[in-house]
Amino acid sequence: MAELLSSRRWQQAIKRQWQRLRLADPDFRFMFEPAPTSQWVALDCKTTGFNLRQDEIISIEAVRIVGNRIMTSERLDMLVRPQRGVSAESVRIYHLREQDLADGLPIDEAMKRLLHFIGSRPLVGYYLDFDLAMIARAMRPLLGIGLPQPTIEVSGLYYDYKMGQQPSHRQHDVPHIDLHFASMMNDLELPLDVCHEALSEAVWAALAFVKLRQLRGEA
Questions:
Q1: Closest residue by Cα to residue 185 from 201, 164, 165, 166
Q2: Which residues contact 197 (CB under 8 A, 6 or more apart)?
Q3: What is the per-residue pLDDT for 172?
Q4: What pLDDT does residue 195 have?
Q5: Is the Cα dihedral 120, 123, 128, 129 positive or negative?
Q6: Percentages (nearest 5) of helix, strand, coil residues in the chain
Q7: Does 162 lie in the same domain as 128?
Q8: Residue 199 above 70 pLDDT?
């Protein structure tokens, strides 16, 4: 396990160096600076669909985490104007119609604001890979790269935590662990039915991250 972690860190370091060299706009070199101590950014995107090549970002939400505090006063919440309209399925899921997005930011401007909000802080989210892939596609025309910051997947933290609770004689067994967001939050005693409409998914991911750090003795 230690060798695997060392290999991953080495691969990440190589990737970051490659991204630094490929960065098209030197004004964004701050993304490669050392991250502020005990600070993260929880991130969530809404899109017109789930096709990485064709669909577009229509909303970006992000919130800073400092230690055990979720800085909702420093929350970023942007609507993004899509170029190709919004599907009926997207409206059904996210309740964002074309008229709601008409005054949204152009994607280039949204990306610049997001980058300045994140800085060099590690990113936290629930099933973050899809969001990062969508952001990378939007960023490449501007910067030539995707986001270089380290990422922390909340569902992975939760899985590792639940596996760590297994008795030592069953460590090699693979139990069923429900990674659905509602189930995970309920198990962490962060019920989604409390003020759910008032909190974004980025804030909920931040809450889960902070709770898991406490349970794992990291805070």
A1: 201
A2: none
A3: 61
A4: 43
A5: positive
A6: 50, 15, 35
A7: no
A8: no
Q: Note whether 187 and 110 are same-domain residues.
A: no
Beta bridge partners of residue 78, listed in sequence order: 60
Contact residues for 210 (Cβ-Cβ < 8 A; gap 6+): 65, 68, 70, 219
Do 133 and 184 have their domain in common?
no
Asked whether residue 176 falls in the same domain as residue 209, the answer is: yes
pTM confidence score: 0.87
Q: What single-letter DSSP state applies at residue 28?
A: G
Q: Are residues 10 and 25 in the same domain?
A: yes
Q: Does residue 104 share a domain with residue 174?
A: no
Range of the domain at 146: 2-152
Give which of 144, 141, 148, 150 is closest to 22, Cα–Cα.
144
- State the CATH number of the domain containing residue 100: 3.30.420.10
- Tell me which DSSP letter residue 29 carries: G
Q: What angle do CA 132, 65, 7 make, to 5 degrees?
A: 50
pLDDT in tens, 3-49: 544 566 777 778 888 888 899 999 999 999 999 999 999 999 999 88
Which position has the token pair 């909303």? 59
| 87 and 158 co-located in one domain | no
State the Cα–Cα distance between residues 170 and 166, nearest whole angstrom: 6
Q: Give the residue from 135, 152, 169 where a domain finishes.
A: 152
Of 33, 36, 38, 123, which is closest to residue 76 (Cα–Cα)? 123
Domain shared by 7 and 23, yes or no: yes
Q: In whole numbers, what is the pLDDT of the chain averaged over residues?
A: 86
